[in-house]
Amino acid sequence: MQGSSQNLVTQVMKGNHYYIPVYQRRYSWVKVQVERLVDDLRLAEEQHRPHYFLGSLILDATVEGINDFSVIDGQQRITTISLFLMAIRDTFPRTDETHQRIDDLYLIDKYDHENVHKNRLHSVPGDEEEYVDVLENGAAAKPSLFRDTYVLFQQVLKDDPKMSPQDWLTVLEQRLVVMSITVQQDDDAQLIFESLNSTGLDLTEADKIRNFLLMDLHGDQQKQAYAIWQKNEKLVSRGELSKFFRHYLTSLAVRSKITLEQQIYDDYRRFIGEAPGFDRIDELRKESQVAKYYSLIKDPQHHQVEDYPDPRARELLIRLGRMNNDITTPYFLQLFKMNNSGRLTGEELSNVLAIILSYLARRLFVGSPSTGLNTFFGILNRQVEQLVRMTSQDYVTALGWQLTSRVVENKLFPTDQALNDALAKKDYYHYADRSFWFVFDELNNVLGEQQDLFDAAQAGHLSIEHIMPQTLSEKWRQELGHNWELIYNQWDNRFANLTLTGFNSRMSNRLFQDKRDMENGYQQSGIKLNQNLAKLEHWNETTLKARERQLYNLAVRAWPRPAITPTNTAKHMLPPDWTTLEANVTITDQVVSAYRLFDQPPKVAKNWKAVFISVALDLWALDPTPFYRTANSDDNDLIFHQAEISEDPRFHQFYPLPNSDLTIRVQPLNNVARLNKLGKLMTATGHDLSDISVKMHTRPSVAKQLRLGKTSLDRKK
Questions:
Q1: Preceding omega of 414 cis (within 30 degrees of 0)
Q2: CB atoms < 10 A from the CB of 196, how many?
Q3: In sequence order, what DSSP letters do the residues of 565-628 get, joined into one string?
Q4: DSSP code of 119?
Q5: Could you tell me the pTM of the whole model?
Q6: What 3-state DSSP class applies to 447?
Q7: Taking the alpha carbons of 611, 613, 619, 622 in that order, is the dihedral positive or negative?
Q8: What's the pLDDT tens digit per position in 7-56?
């Protein structure tokens, strides 16, 4: 094989014939891929880049004909660029020199006497007819994906205020670069194709990032960059790389949304690769430091205590890892970065980890849903730092305050009463095994030296045991007394009746005294929580209640709730009666009186419609670009060009955006629908609904209005 960096249009496509093998899938690029290509090319032109890298192109030169190549990999790109060239060509008259030059060099071989259409690119059967139709008839061709792409390029050329068709042609001819790899006569083209496609898997998001970082470098720079990449890959592990980049991007807090799995590479290009002054090797070095943090956070068992900024941090991270809370990783990356820069001491870092451990453990214990926690932790650091600035409190205190009083109800730090209620009501036997192992291990370790019951249970050495068995014998019923059925129904699967033992099958439904005294029974158990059972003579409602009180006291000690007494509150600090918006916040029958966007001063609002309009205007003033992007998208129902709705009888339902041809739909909407639209607006502009806080109160009932004499009937009188 031979490989080299070449200009796709003037060096690869010029004067050659390309055949898409029948084993290839059909042309499939749609609007989103084409628009991304156009945006990237436009950005490369605006930033005066010498070239734009379009990826690799693998060609088979073993087909007949000195200028004939079979496209093993890259047909989507070469086909799309051919359609772009057609669209540019057709902006010039047929008699124009540029029109003729594009045809002769890249699209048509006028000396090809065997092919009636003389096209240089030969698609798979079924595609070729549609491709040729567009080649010869342009927008007048029959409907097809090829025609759709061609028409889209036509629209780009027509609407672009800065670049002419000739400018676009120059970009394609001078800046569009691929890594062209050519299979020679001695190479096995089929074997190469099978190696590329045998797994049926696309490139991972990390693969795409690696190619983006390395393919544009050469010589010693590429070797240096690859060495750093390999180091980072070793720290993170190859299988974790895509996840690492997802968490890394979220931790950068360049927007309020978390990075989604399918958008890792796109977000990387957008927020890192297209940033002013971007340097590949410098970026890899930054990522190397973050990879160290990532390894410390995700794999604490394989690090020493000395590797951490505080001795407690390793043990806290091990305990946190047992809850499988991957959602906290971006936040923890931010904490380690703050520690490295001196903004958090090692002790403060451990104190924060301890608070998060208590917060998540209590939520697990009481059964709080995890919905929305990924976004919650994605923006938590920003919210806490904002609170630090406004109150001059230390970070740890501000975090405790945020979690105990400044989040929506379903995200609040569970109270001691919530722990007590869970013990009295919750079925812990049908808990996930890992969750029960974690909780039992945590409570057991409050009593003294850590015993690692979680690891023992995970290894299969321990299992969950009902002290009062699930099937009651007659002797058990006598032990429980005349209320045995009520006691059984109430206590069977509650935590007080459960324990961990390595001899569950041998204990079965024996009487309590037998379980206590048998070989390897409760008296001989090394588990501290079981040693209390060895002191009991009976197992009944009285002892169940006593054990429940013990478990409650252990839970409160294992996961302390921050005791916050805020001081030095700034004047513009949000009081407790304010609510941070989320998608599941209930605003039905809620009257709003003020709102706050980001950390700006609060603004008065007479109703929800006023909040919506005011937020839209604030965001418009910050950056109008997302508004135009949304107006031009296919799935938009929020922002429109004035011309689109000028004949709409609902014209009064829109609010014009200043100094533009855009307008935003504001009504008719109920409160629930308006909250949904507000969420869409925040997402479209790269923010999150939680960036808005509101002051609201419940609308008085009709009965109360009658008592106050404020009904519409009274007003008419």
A1: no
A2: 11
A3: ---S--TTPPPTTEEE--TT---TTEEEEEEEETTSPPEE-SSHHHHHHHHHHHHHHH-SHHHH
A4: B
A5: 0.64
A6: coil
A7: negative
A8: 999 998 998 899 887 556 778 888 989 998 999 898 888 888 888 888 87
